[in-house]
Amino acid sequence: MADQRSLPVPDGLAGERLDAALSRLFGFSRTRAAELIAVGDVLVDGQAAAKSDRVHAGAWLDVTLPPPPTAPMPVAEPVPGMKILYEDSDLIVVDKPIGVAAHPTVGWTGPTVIGGLLGAGHTVATSGAAERQGIVHRLDANTSGTMVVAKSEVAYSLLKRAFKERRVDKRYHALVQGHLDPLRGTVDAPIDRHPSGDGRFAVVAGGKPSITHYDTVEAFRAASLLDIGLETGRTHQIRVHMSALRHPCVGDLMYGADPTLAARLKVGRQWLHAVTLSFEHPTTGAWVSFTSEYPEDLATALELAGRES
């Protein structure tokens, strides 16, 4: 069902092009705004307008937003390279390889953790949206490492709460460009979608509170290996915060990494790995911890960085 929005143009957008004003008001790209204008889904003071028309403060906008696309259901088929680190009747911990999303999303056609588990005959909790049942946290498709999925309904509920209340210890290793000063520190900077609407996230005023702790493990000539702990779990959080410090993850071209260095270290994605995941077991109450070794591409890049130093 389409979503009807009616609102005045705020003073801060007076004089902006209509497509630019819509992009800033609704958070989608100017291309998407232009498409809505072209098909007549945007009225200014009750009249059709062109994307290049300038808007004035107080002008009344009537916008018809199409219903959001629905995520596909998971395809139950085994995922090559996805290892099981631990399993019991309540949860299953996987070592997620790159190129695998946590669950199906709009526009993603590749393999998923949930589909891989179902395809291998594992059961998962039925709580949550149909396309992401059992999923209590996520890793980016091209971030490897430890990830837990709930199998029982009680585990789903308690693990979701533990992640929300920040009672889970998530440790990552990241190889970032250059050397951080200070060598140990905290990044406390809000994150939200990048104004460009191109799928990136960014540090923006008014974004969601985001806190990242880092500690330098080893410094190489052109890069540093960091141990990172998260207090919050925003999308792309480590990648965004490291980029904001001007030390993007090696290979993370989306967030400004040097392609020459990435090629030299033979890494084709962001050098970021979820090394350890620790939490209170939802039914036994025991503190449990699971660790993942570096996959081959990250280990090779680290070795090459060492040779250069």
Automatic annotation (TrEMBL):
Catalytic activity from the UniProt record: a uridine in RNA = a pseudouridine in RNA
SUPFAM superfamilies: Alpha-L RNA-binding motif, Pseudouridine synthase
Domain RNA-binding S4: from-to ranges: 16-59
Enzyme class of the recorded protein, top EC level: isomerase
InterPro entries: PsdUridine_synth_cat_dom_sf, PsdUridine_synth_RluC/D, PsdUridine_synth_RsuA/RluA, RluA_PseudoU_synthase, S4_RNA-bd, S4_RNA-bd_sf
Record-linked PANTHER family: MITOCHONDRIAL RNA PSEUDOURIDINE SYNTHASE, RIBOSOMAL LARGE SUBUNIT PSEUDOURIDINE SYNTHASE D
Family: Belongs to the pseudouridine synthase RluA family.
Protein name: Pseudouridine synthase
Organism: Sinosporangium album
